[in-house]
UniProtKB/TrEMBL annotation:
Chain ranges of the N-acetyltransferase domain: 3-150
Lineage: Bacteria, Bacillati, Bacillota, Bacilli, Bacillales
Record key words, sorted: Transferase
Protein name: GNAT family N-acetyltransferase
Key word Transferase present: yes
A Pfam cross-reference name: Acetyltransf_1
Coiled-coil regions, chain positions: none
Amino acid sequence: MKLSLTIVASEDKDEYLPLLLIADESEKAVKQYFADGDLFSIHINDELSGVILFTTIDVSTIELKNFALLKAYRGKGLGKKVIQTALSDYKEMGVKQVLVGTANSSIGNIAFYQKAGFRMKEIKRDFFLDYPEPIIENGIRALDMLMFQKELD
C-alpha cells in the first residue's frame, strides 16, 4: 500500500468541500476554518481516498480540524497511518503538540483518537448548539466538543 499526502493549493480547496463535509456536517463551520488551514489530499495507491486539514494555533501547536476517509478506506488502520505520516512532517517543522476535537456523540472518533495516542484535554460545553441543524449520532445529540491532545516527542 502506497500512502501519500499532497498539500492542496488555496485556489483548489473548494473542490474538496464534499470530502470535508464527511467529517463536519456544517458547511458554514467548514468554510470558517478551511481557508486558513493546511489541507492535504490523501492518496492510497494513487487514488484520492480522503482529506486531512490542520490549523496553526501557535508556533508549537496545531489543531487537526478535519479528517475524512472515504468509506472504502475506513477500518483498515489507514487513518492511524495518515495521522502518523502528517504528524511526522509537522514534528520536523518544530510542532510539539496537536489538538483535535470531536463531538460527545462521535463514539467511534473518541475511540479512534485515543488509539492514535491522543489524551483527553477538555470539554467545550454546548459547542454544537450554534450549528444550524442538530447533529444526532449513535442516538446521542452532539452538544459538547471533546478536546484531545497529543504530544509529539
